Amino acid sequence: MFRRFAISCVLLVCALPAIARTRPRYGGALRVETAGDPWQRPDGLARRLVYDGLTRIDAKGSVQPALAVGWEADSGDHRWEFRLRPGVHFHDGSPLTSTAVVSSLNLSCNGKCPWSTVHAVGSTVVFTSDGPMPNLSSLLASDEFLISLVVAVDGTAPQGNIGTGPFQVASSVNGVLSLKANEASWRGRPFVDTIEIGAHRAVRDQWLDLSLGRADVVEVPVETIRQAQQQKLKIAMAPHVELLALKTAEFGALANPIVRGAISTAIDRGAIANVIFQKQGEVTASVLPQEISGFACLYPTDRDLSKAQSLRGGLTVPTLTIGAEGDSVMQLAAQRIALNLHEVGFNAVVAAQGSNSARADLTLRRFPLAGADPSAVLDEVLRSAGDSLLASDANPTSLYKTERTFLDQHTLIPLVDLPRAYALGPRVRDLHLIAEGRPDLADASLEDVP
After folding, report:
1. How many domains does the chain have?
2. Is residue 2 a part of any domain in this protein?
3. Any idea what the CATH number is for the domain that residue 174 is in?
4. In DSSP terms, which residues pair with 120 in a beta bridge?
5. CA-to-CA distance for 53 and 357, rounded, in angstroms?
6. What sign does the CA torsion over 222, 226, 232, 236 have?
7. Which tens digits make up the pLDDT trace of 317-370?
């Protein structure tokens, strides 16, 4: 009995360090690098660290309370009322009020809001619209509607970026944005003391810094995921969180929907997914991914040159300009599309990188696919694409009808569902990707904190 007791004690003592290592630790500086601007919408990593929304989308894609603790819709979803969380303050100490929320929301969409009016009523924020807004609670979780301080307590405009998020701005020096933990965060204090975001870093430099221990979280563009896996990098990846699509103009050379339909049929989606994005995307002709809607498979994705040529017929179409929002890889995809169009008789040229894509006839864009509610995801993509259609409910028949009506216009041509990925250093623990594929840095912790 004594021998068994002694062995049990030894095993318990050996297990205690392992148990301790499973607990997140407080402290340390998490070093992150990005190729873009940490404040730029919709991908800026600093935005969701400094700002909160009225609602949020959890890792499973469900809508959860954030600055609002509850909400109700009435009048057939024409009116929504959101109750604010009590006791929340901005980083400068200003209280979160319904008036402050309304000021932020009005500024965020500059008069082009998805609602008709928003106003403060006591500790609630009330939205009204001429049409139903069945997915407003999900929409308000998007990056566009994060709440920032617009007017300070003394009536002056605040200096810098001030929100209610888990981190607040400490400094920005030589391209490095330093954020410090918000001790009074309504979500509780973050585990790490600071997050340092190095901006405008080339991917090759990010990976080098990761290998040398100078960075903890770096980007893995879609086309480099296979390379990162071959190099045995520790990767966090979220599949099918972005839709690569071609936005078409509805005027000039593309005013005719038949011409837009010919373009849609002429594009080789498989080549874009397999060659440009190294087989990391999934071809699609649907706005909603198959795992969300269940009917994406009903839309044919194969290229049909004969049909494209038949649709084009004898129509004379002026030279088309293709723009691409994003990096050089998006430019390559645009060039591939231009070659496809040449093969069916269209003359197409790709605009120079960085040029004004608003003037292009065709624009290659990425649309976020955040959340598990197909109705809400469809509404957000359609709204981002400038369409007025709305999905009234999550009924599959209704959703399919709405999406089919939209796609038959060929004003947005879905091409590929893309993942997002990040590489993590050995110190990083408990880092997950949220529904839209960005890292949840606020919940991450570090292994080597004393």
Report:
1. 3
2. no
3. 3.40.190.10
4. 125
5. 29
6. positive
7. 889 999 999 889 999 999 999 999 999 999 999 998 877 766 899 999 999 998
